[in-house]
Amino acid sequence: MREFDKTVVSCAVTGAIHTPTMSPHLPITAEEIAAEAVAAAEAGASIVHVHVRDEATGEPVTDLDLFREVAETVAEGCDAIVQPTTGGAPTMPPEERIQVVPELEPEMASCNMGSINFGLYQLVEKYDEFEYDWEPEYLDGTRDLIFQNTFADLETILPIFDEHDTKPELEVYDVGHLYNAKHLVDRGLVQTPIHIQFVLGIHGGIGASAKNLNHLVDVAEDLFGDDFTFSVIGAGRHEFPLGTQAVSMGGHARVGLEDNLYLERGRLAESNAELVEKMVRLTREVAGREVATPVETRELLGLKGKSSTAF
Ligand code: KMH
Ligand code: ZN
What we know:
Elements: E1 9-12, H1 30-43, E2 47-50, E3 52-53, E4 60-61, H2 64-77, E5 81-84, H3 94-97, H4 100-104, E6 108-112, E7 116-117, H5 134-141, E8 146-147, H6 151-163, E9 167-172, H7 175-186, E10 194-200, H8 210-224, E11 228-234, H9 239-248, E12 252-255, E13 262-264, E14 267-268, H10 272-285, H11 294-301
Helix pairs in contact: 1-2, 1-10, 7-8, 9-10
The structure holds (5S)-5-amino-3-OXO-hexanoic acid and zinc ion.
Zinc ion binds near residues 49, 87 and 258.
Organism: Haloplanus ruber
GO molecular function, one term: transferase activity
Keywords: Metal-binding, Transferase, Zinc
């Protein structure tokens, strides 16, 4: 039986799914990303998941100076766990995406559990025009693109996590990814207890439904017993229903403009903090659970602690 510890609310503040035209509230510069992350932490997020973007155009990039600037500014402004992406954008090669781990030696970073189609091309037709040429090109390019995370890639990057005592958050987009994770645990490439981030609703991964989330958790229990914690991302309008289901099941939830731009139907979220506030409210009012502080989250997930990071 899963212990109903406090709930970890993560906030993914900018990502690589949405583009500047889609919301004027999407943070772009390192300063904006860090400010959004600190405000999200003040609203109750104990983990802030970060990507960086070209400061002039908003295009997703892997610039380590920008990552460092974000990480340092967030660390000065709050105690939240800074979790950089190693997923970057589906267009970026894995060897480029992993570089942030040796650079920042973070407590935690995302780690994607398999190669998938990652279709964003369907978003193009929702907008009459785009602010930057790269936006429709980037989105449409995903029609013929694989988000690459092969077994060989994972064999290369997982020892880098270990070397820097960075806990991988395992991004699981489909049921098969749980079997990949089990294989990697059995080979000693991932240490238990693992922390899984279930991602539902990406075009190329498992669909966003309550039934699918139940199934993912069932399979994880079959494979890992009690040796895992889990959080859930429901893409787009599924963010709050699936987040609420997750916390009602003893799991954790991620919100943020990376995965969802709307506070409610037809109303853009004006900040990441607004999305966090709503998830905190749902956690308390629907699931009857309290939200974990960064210190409690470190304890719950067995992280090395802020003082051991390189920023
Ligand atoms: N954008 C999410 C669906 C990563 O950054 O490594 C998944 C994600 C992956 O955040
Ligand atoms: Zn991400």
